[in-house]
Amino acid sequence: KFKMYRDAVSQSPYLFDGSHFWTYEDSTSIKFKMTYVRNQQLAGVMIWNLEQDLSDGSLLSAVASGLASTN
Q1: Mean pLDDT of 34-48
Q2: Of the chain's two ends, which shows fewer C-beta atoms within 10 Å, N or C?
Q3: Helix residue spans in the chain (DSSP H)
Q4: Average model confidence (pLDDT) for the chain?
Q5: How far is Cα 4 from Cα 66, in angstroms, rounded to an integer?
Q6: Count of beta carbons in the 10 Å neighbourhood of residue 8
Q7: Which value, in Å, is the radius of gyration of the alpha carbons in the chain?
Q8: Burial class (CB in 10 A: 0-12, 13-18, 19+), 64
Q9: DSSP type of residue 64
Q10: What gap in Å lies between CA 25 and CA 37, rounded to an integer?
Q11: Residue 31 burial (CB count, 10 A)
């Protein structure tokens, strides 16, 4: 049975069952990374595959809200 963990530095979630290791992104890790992009004044981000988003588009929404100015 897989157990979910979260990396303390990148906030990325991962699953591990003692033998198998799976990494992925979720809304929390995406928003964290978008804050980094904004704080570093980077020019933008890249999205690899929208087919992997959830049916409600929550991962793309995390990108948009994470990049939105907090001012």
Answers
A1: 93
A2: C
A3: 27-39, 58-67
A4: 92
A5: 23
A6: 7
A7: 14
A8: exposed
A9: H
A10: 16
A11: 17
> How far is 71 from 67, CA to CA, in rounded Å?
12
Distance CA 8, CA 69 (A): 24
Q: Measuring CA to CA, how many Å separate 28 from each of 1, 34, 61? A: 23, 10, 11
Hey, what are 6's tokens? 């979260």
Predicted model pTM = 0.84
Both structure tokens of 5: 């963990």
Contact 37, 69 (CB under 8 A): no
Tens digits of per-residue pLDDT, 20-40? 999 999 999 999 999 999 999
Cα–Cα distance for residue pair 67/63, rounded to 1 Å? 6
Hey, what are 67's tokens?
């990049």
